[in-house]
């Protein structure tokens, strides 16, 4: 998952942005940077326990692999570690109208318009979400384990490893790191779905490459089970998203649409419970998502997944050449949004 921040200069360049929000963004990120310590320093410290040493060594193997095999940026990102003392790096707020799957967007200097708004304090995120609900929007607050500064903070030490994801299983840690590093490769300032789907494609392709060449049998088996659940979850939620889109676009009354929406959401939760009791063998990793599911959470899934197959096809079309693939993505990112989407659709 990604929440991007601009640094002090970009914050000062805008007079229309909300000062309080920008101040918490800048302050929160600077606190994170101050808390970060060099991985080499931590490994040399006899007080660093065995488990943390193993995780740090794995993270550096993954980081080296990301440069050598995936040709992701070779910089200071993920060469330091910070314990934030909390379960999320930031909390994002996303919102949609009651009868629409169109994400509300917020615009910021340099990074453009995005479909989320992040807070380093959960209470502030919840308060903002509550204000959106008063306006009649459906809002969701969710914790984000990592975010990318798009390379802007490399001169300050780069994006650090965090306690929020350092203990992830091997392949999941790979996915997280590769996803966030991908945002430093290409970024379209007006297209959240393009950016997140590209990073999702990189994390999927990169993790598969890691497991094939460096992962052990246990890691491959663990990843296979997790990925099967992930694919089933994606397929099921995509089906309901399409039904909701058709419902909202229909000529029915708002009352009829609300009733249809309630039926579909109930059916989706019922199908999840069957899946959990069946092939998932009681796995509860998606429990929280279904408990909070609404238009906003469904729309967010679309941003991360709908275009990723097109990027994976593009990767294959480029002969599985990472450098050529990134060059093509950067070319598309520089195009106007409509033209970018039209050309990308050729890979779907």
Kindly list the characteristics that best describe this protein.
three-stranded mixed beta sheet, three-stranded antiparallel beta sheet, mainly alpha, 14 helices, single chain, globular, 348 residues, 8 strands
Outline the secondary-structure elements.
Elements: H1 8-12, H2 19-35, E1 37-38, H3 39-44, H4 50-68, E2 80-82, E3 90-96, E4 106-108, E5 112-114, E6 117-119, H5 122-134, E7 138-144, E8 161-162, H6 170-182, H7 192-213, H8 217-249, H9 254-277, H10 287-292, H11 295-305, H12 308-317, H13 322-333, H14 337-344
Parallel strand pairs: 2-8
Antiparallel strand pairs: 1-2, 3-6, 3-7, 4-5
Notes on the structure:
With 348 residues, the chain is mainly α. It has a domain at 220-305. The protein contains 14 helices and eight strands. The protein has helices at residues 8-12, 19-35, 39-44, 50-68, 122-134, 170-182, 192-213, 217-249, 254-277, 287-292, 295-305, 308-317, 322-333, 337-344, and strands at residues 37-38, 80-82, 90-96, 106-108, 112-114, 117-119, 138-144, 161-162. Strands 1-2-8 form a three-stranded mixed β-sheet. α8 (217-249) packs antiparallel against α9 (254-277). It is globular, with a radius of gyration of 20 Å. Mean pLDDT is 89; it is low at 1-17.
